[in-house]
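An instance follows:
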Amino acid sequence: MAREGGGMSAGTQLDRPKAAFDPASPPTGTEETCGHPDGVRATARIRATYNGRVTTLPELRSDGPFHLRRMRTGGRAATVGVIGAMSAPLGGDRLALDITAEDRAELDVTTAAATLALRGPTTAPATYDVRLSVGEHACLRWLPKPLISAADSNLHQTCTVNLAATSQLVLREEQILGRANEKPGHLVSRIRVHRAGRLLLDQHTAYGDPEPGWDGPAVLDGHRAVGQLLVVDPELDLQRAPVLLRKGTKDGCAVLAPLAGGPALLATAVARTSSALRELLNEALGHAFGE
C-alpha cells in the first residue's frame, strides 16, 4: 500500500447507554468480488457511543486510503472527517468503510474532497463498500463529497444500511460522470437499506459503457451529475404528495417522494453540474424537514 498522491480524497456540508447495538436485521453485506493482486485491500472503521452526556469515538481505525480524523464539534454529536491518504479507488482495489452509531449516539461523517475513481494498472473493477449501522434513538449523517467516475475507470460501489426502529439517518450520494470534456468510466452503484429487520430501499444504478441506454432521454438525457438523498426519521411528516423540484429547467431537476414501509423520504436528482446537483439536494433536504 505504497501508493501516494491525491486520490480518494474525502469535507462537510453539514440516559444511560444501553448494551452494544445489535440490530435485528438480516446481514446486508455485499457479495464477495475478486480483486486484483496489485490492488489495495483496506477496511476503515468508525464506532460512536453515547456516554450519557456526549457522543464518544471508542474506535477510529484508519486503513489504506482512509485517514480518519476526529473534528471539533459543539453539542453532543461527534464528527469524523475522512481524508484521502493515497490515490484510490483504482482498478482492482477492494475498499470498505464501516460506520456504527450505537444506541443514542449522534454522529456526522464527512469527507475532505471528492473521491476520484481511476483506471489504475488493471481494467478489473474496484469495489468501494460503505456499511452503516444505526442503533435505537441514534442519529447518523453520512454526507460525503461527490464521487467522480473518470474515463476508463471501473467501479462497483455499494452502501448497505441497518437501522433500528427509532434510528435517524441522513444519507447523501453524489456522482459526477466524467471530468471536464471526457467520457465517464463504468460506474455501478447500489444502496440497500433495512429498517427494524425489514427492507426499506434497494436501489441499483449503472452508468457508462457498456450499460445500454444510460445516457438516453429516459435516463440521464445528457446530464452528468446524479445524486440521491435519503432521510429516515420516525418524526417525519409523510402525509404529502411527491414534490418535483425545478421542473422544466435546463440545469436539472429532482423528485422527493415518501418510501413505502417506513418514515422515509428519498430525493433523486439529475443536473448538468456538481454545484447544481448540490443545490437540488439541499433544496430537497429543506422540503423534507419542512423548511
User: Anything to note?
Assistant: The first helix runs from residue 274 to 288.
